[in-house]
TrEMBL record, chains A, B:
GO terms for biological process: tRNA pseudouridine synthesis. The active site is at 52 (nucleophile). The keyword Isomerase applies. InterPro entries: PsdUridine_synth_cat_dom_sf, PsdUridine_synth_TruA, PsdUridine_synth_TruA_a/b_dom, PsdUridine_synth_TruA_C, TruA/RsuA/RluB/E/F_N. Homodimer. The gene is truA. Keywords: Isomerase, tRNA processing. Transmembrane segments: none annotated. The keyword NAD does not apply. This is tRNA pseudouridine synthase A. Residues 10-104, 144-246 form the Pseudouridine synthase I TruA alpha/beta domain. Its EC number is 5.4.99.12.
Amino acid sequence: MTRFALTLEFDGGPFMGLQRQDHGPSVQQAVEDAAFAITGEKVTMHSAGRTDSGVHALAMRSHVDIEKPFDPFRLMEALNAKMRPDPVAVTACEVVAADWHARFSCIGRRYQYRIRNRRAPLTLTKGQEWQIARPLDEQAMHRAAQFLVGRHDFTTFRSAHCQAKDPLKTLDRLDVRREGDLVLVEADARSFLHHQVRSMVGTLALVGLGQWREEQVAQALAARDRQALGLNAPAEGLYFVEAIYPAG
Amino acid sequence: MTRFALTLEFDGGPFMGLQRQDHGPSVQQAVEDAAFAITGEKVTMHSAGRTDSGVHALAMRSHVDIEKPFDPFRLMEALNAKMRPDPVAVTACEVVAADWHARFSCIGRRYQYRIRNRRAPLTLTKGQEWQIARPLDEQAMHRAAQFLVGRHDFTTFRSAHCQAKDPLKTLDRLDVRREGDLVLVEADARSFLHHQVRSMVGTLALVGLGQWREEQVAQALAARDRQALGLNAPAEGLYFVEAIYPAG
């Protein structure tokens, strides 16, 4: 048995999410079906994050265990060939130790959220950004974001379907910056609650639009109540960017 | 009568090209049909470039003449509303002098060509980049590109369907650079022949792959013969980036 770590890039648009679902296509199913077609083995893929329908990944980390011997480069090529034309690609594949786990060994996760702040509808990036027509004050958003950095009870910013036992999480970084008409939010943490990034971004957008004062974000956090949430940002602007593992 | 200059962004994928065609949808038809729906006037759109099927634009410049009085912001909003869900957007609209012409007043055009240099298939940028699996030497490509800069007879790099009277063109800049696994080619000229950028990029790719020596690009140019062309790069990696007009 060999454990292969996979780096996955995918367009979340046509999927019901990363995790296997009964009611539609998933990234997990795409990879597992391709692995079965190649190896004849029923594998289970584990991943650093469990992204929702419509959420994209630039470099999700996952692993699968395969009995038959395979060269990692050959496995990557075969998986990519089998998955066409699904918008999932294995961009890297390596053999890892049997106790390395894409989810449980992961000590850091980075998400990026892309807001296109302009009047005109999206063309080339349709389904890949959240369009907000009215001008956003990204500096106010960045200042308000700093209320969320640190160790907090993030109940306000958590989906009703979140399965985590503990709403206490440490948010290491939440930066907002502008590049032309693109407003980028980057979030780093060891782990996130379900919908946490989208909930934080949606609420910061209200600050950026001038509908919320910056301090209201701190009040919403302190409320520890989903009803205090400003807005949940749509899935299509969210990207899983990086999973971090201990060196060695 | 008022002349409106439009800045257009579009995904060229679903169109037969910018110019109106008998056999399928075009960007020109999308804009003209929207203008007709709004104004009741049959307008003709003129544009800085005439991009092929599959070629994209970040900021094409065009103009239309409209008899009814319109505020340019309102016209832009109405055009964008009517063109949904076609992937064309008017990102700017302004009133210009009656003798300003999107095509004939234009004194500079900039194109960008995007090559994704990796094994893995494209996901998020499918139809928006040319994927080349084998490693490209972008520095050799840049050196070879310099043979093409200047005033030359570009017959070798011209489509058989090119309607320009004169194959003599002045190429002001042709730069190749790498950003991670993205190899970017940027071309500046007052005007280009049909397929010129794609023909230059395709031929430079052969140099990047080591199939052509750098000097062969100079020899192909000197041949003034379409048969001497290395390769025509696919439309999907090409972007019309900027049209330049005299100040004032």
